[in-house]
Structure prediction request, 215 residues.
Amino acid sequence: MIPGMDLETPEEYYARVAAATDAEGRLTVAVEEMPGWDIYPYEVDSLRIKPLRPLDDAEPPRRGEVPEECWCTDPDAQPPVGGVAWRNERWRLALASESKVPVSLFLEPLVHCDLATVPDGLAGEMGRLVVAIAAAVEELPSVGRTQLYRFGDGGAHLHLFFLGRPRRVLQFRGSPLLDWEENLPALPVEVHRANAAYVGRRLVEAFGGEGPDWF
Ligand SMILES: [Zn+2]
Prediction:
């Protein structure tokens, strides 16, 4: 923190949001914003926002918050359920255990850090990997665009999600993809692995390392 700057507190932020709720503590559905877009999966007339909960006392600990208890203490002992499409000595690109879009991958460093604490020596490589993964995903015939996410609210160890937005399914564009995705049928494992293997092999071409671990 930079000392001496008068920045808004959590209480001040929350109070302003709470002041916008109705007698039941509910916000109004913003029909002029995303809920009203034609790419939003739910019909506005059926929507009601859950009552706003009280401000929590603190941020809860996440999985792997204590480095000694994180999977990265022994990466090979806790491999990703879906498999690894590519890895080198510092990173691995894993498959989500189940995908509903053409490809769902997550990139994670093998050393313990979060997005705000990536060591200088890894940050540049992360940038090049993000570019290369995005490009490879967008080469897949069934993908129209790469979507990139980092939430970080569940796990303390950095993981960047790459989702392939289905090509020509224009209703799935933009951030509503995550809501659509929850409701889609699962992709067959062999289709997911074939798409992920393509991305992994592209990374081997560009960076060396090891390709898919399921062959
Ligand atoms: Zn870790």
